[in-house]
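## Example pair
The file below holds two records. Each record gives the amino-acid sequence first, followed by its structure token line.
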Amino acid sequence: MIEILILSAYILPMIIAANLTEKQGQLSPILVILSLGMVALSGLWRLFAQALSRLSWSEAIAFDPKKSVHRTAAFLMILGFLNLAMIILLDDATSEESAIVLAEALQELLSTGALHLAAAFLGVGWLMRRSVPAVLDRLCLRKPTLREAGISLATGIGLWLFSTAAVAVWEQSVPAEVFLQQTEEAQLYFQAFSGSLLTALLLAIVPAVSEEIFYRGALQPVFGIFVTSLFFTITHVQYGLTPAMLILFAVSLGFSWLRLRYHTSAAIIAHAVFNFLPYLVGA
């Protein structure tokens, strides 16, 4: 919880300062200070844009090296990658706790979801550059049709079946003690939320809504499917440097495809289904 508060106190003011810079047309000193001067380096972000264009697939990406909002988002994303590198070097990717308390896990779940939503809505200019309808349009949040809801449901089930099969292959490919060690924290979270379908439903819905709005709604149009999915994967540091990250990356590509083909709401449905199925099947 304390870590989330610290992140919020750093990330949200930077996002607000970036949007005010876009609105006023003058680089905010607060933004320069918080980013250690990085957002002011025009040459760096032109190089970043060139690299990003090579990583994009068939989709059109909106990253503009002249925009302070885009520079700030890229800077924060780079910090996320550096955070993963530090975790790997320190060999601290897995939890040393023997149990996860449900109340603490719920608190972390809700606070992280709130941070994702705040970063997404403020990042696209809510209260500063865009009206609420314009923000919802930018985040591609729409009411799905019955057909789109069905496709999203089927995609969520399909991604869950894929991940279940991939985990089974992973389990058979390594010694039992290694598999248990690599999946320890995931198992602890599963046990913490498996007490009732109500808490499992909360675990399914909150990340689905907050993460999809943040990653697929806010970031994907700017950075593309590949980079956004990579960032989505590395921010789930509880999996460490294990095959789970490759599985999660593949699953993320499925959510990203739904966002590209339909809208963010479709990705939310699939993500919620994917999260909830393990608890529903195990009930």
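Second record, same layout:
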Amino acid sequence: MENFFKVKEHGSNVKTELLAGLTTFMAMAYILMVNAGMFSNLGVVSYNAIYIATAISAVVGTFLMAFLANLPLGLASGMGLNAFFVYTVCFTFGLSYANALILVLLDGIIFIILTVTGVRAKLFAAIPDCVRIAIPAGIGLFIAFLGLQNSGLVVDDQATLVNLVSFNLLNGNATWATIMPLLVTIFSLIIIAVLSAKKIKGSVLWGILGGTGIYYVLGFTVPGFYNNFWEGKSLNPFEAFSEWGTQAFGKIFTEGFDFSHYLANHTQAELIIVIATSALAFCMVDMFDTLGTLYGACARGGMLDENGQVPNFEKAMLSDAIATCAGAVCGTSTVTTFVESSSGVAEGGRTGLSSLTTGILFFIAMFLSPIASLIPGNATAAALIYVGVLMMGCVTDIDWKDVTVAVPAFLTIAFMSFTYNISYGIAFGLISYIFIKLFTGRVKEIKAFTWVIAILFTLMFFLTH
């Protein structure tokens, strides 16, 4: 293995690579529970089925990164893209779970073509810097909002649309049974923050596990909490594989091309526009996320080459694209390179031996689904909120003093979170950028492909929304 991955040549050793791989897994493992919990909201696929789909796609993607690109990076279903899949494509646009998997497959195929042909660079250059930089922040705020809603801390309010849930025990609006899970989310978030501040490896995972412990300890204080606790639960890990095989695996081929449910209330033109714009949104977010992670993680570890480029860059992008296609077949959303991989790089990981270790640990985790299913949604909600915190950091790179930059960036962030839709944020960022540049006499700064993308989004608004 040392010779295959050229560990010594990269200034590392086997022990360091193994520890780095373990660190990356600890930082990424939360995605197994969070992704499964998010997809289970669809009602057509179970927690266990998506848990297995997430684990298998993570294994495939991370192994590809190890053997094809020889980089110490982990891959799994991307945060933000999974929310876009569930809450925008399925709930807002009205496509089915299997239909949405088609869009993920298109994302992977497009990504492969763009990578092989070199068009990827032109597409990346067409997105204005102010919008590109703002995308992670918008996704982060959106994800944090989902976490606040999933935990029950933020609730629907007819007067203000959103409001804080009641903690009032005196007037009967709240009881200890309703407040206890909310406190679990708050405590879990505090644990994650404290452990992160102390540089503890896997702080998000430990925060989720700590919150789970608090949840079950406090459960003794809630009357009837443990009544029929084991009903419907099983400690057999192979039942999860069975659910995955019947509910998720291959659904893209057996049901994905059946759009009759959508067409019952929409026209074929609307369907074409939704598919085109959604696939584009999947591809753009996936591309920017992967590019940012590759450069960020490799720069942190001093792994960039003499030209400041990521080593084996095209192979790394290809690994990501192939993994996305595999994820679609398995039944989960877009697979992307995780920014949490930076934790393993910080521990000294420099080669694919590190990511191979991470992939093996994801494989082992597939057989722990019965344990993972015991983790409450209030604990994983804290992870969503914290991921939002991490993704907001890019706003410091936006020139807020330049209005032509600040407005598109702000609209990108605001529309993602306030409209519950990632693609709407990208659309309003691009469209506002074009109009501001146009009316300030700087039309030459607008690239040709930027116009094309903006027109596609405009058609989506006028024909489908």
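Notes on the second record: The beta strands are 75-77, 154-157, 161-164, 335-337. The first helix runs from residue 2 to 5.
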